[in-house]
């Protein structure tokens, strides 16, 4: 299955339906990251709460992003100490990341244009959202390719030859 998702379909299908069902691991790669809120039951909560819940359930969460999150995200982050304390939560900062990808349990992948922000992936009104597009797939060859590539970034393989290292606040390798 490969499915084209547009605008708020991305939010509904990926963020509300698929991400909370992760059982083993969730990888999120984004250029920009902000204090995104999502629906959880009858409330809207920071997406950090969804990641917190997954970690609490034993799901490994890997978050890779290009720049430091804003002050609201950092303030909300402090409300979820498990994300700081648990070995199941990993966060990597790489200024060259521009991709936007979510991988769930190695069985489902989303790749597209939205950043991990309210206007990109979050619970914004259709009249306030960015115009976004992406593909959701369960095709093993696409997922394997994405996972291998993301893992090489996570392990810092490009760091050795990166010509932007002087701008990197926290080199991986």
CATH architecture grouping: 2-Layer Sandwich
Structural class: alpha+beta
Q: How many distinct beta strands?
A: 9
CATH class: Alpha Beta
Give the strand line-up of the largest sheet: 1-9-8-7-2-5-6
| Uncertain segments | none
Q: Write the element-wise H/E pattern from the N-terminal end onward.
A: EHEEEHEHHEEEEH
- Tally of separate domains: 1
The overall average pLDDT, rounded, is: 91
Measured by DSSP, the beta-strand proportion falls in 25-35%
The CATH homologous superfamily is called Endonuclease Chain A
Number of helices, counting only DSSP H or I runs of 4 residues or more:
5
Q: State the shape.
A: globular
CATH topology: Endonuclease, Chain A
* Rg (C-alpha, Å): 15 Å
Structure description:
- The chain has 173 residues and is of the alpha+beta class.
- The chain has one domain: Endonuclease, Chain A, CATH 3.30.870.
- Helices cover 27% and strands 25% of the residues.
- The strands form two sheets. A seven-stranded mixed beta sheet has the order 1-9-8-7-2-5-6, with helices on both faces. A two-stranded antiparallel sheet has the order 3-4.
- The protein is globular, with a radius of gyration of 15 Å.
- The termini are far apart.
Core attributes:
single chain, alpha+beta, seven-stranded mixed beta sheet, two-stranded antiparallel sheet, 9 strands, 25% strand
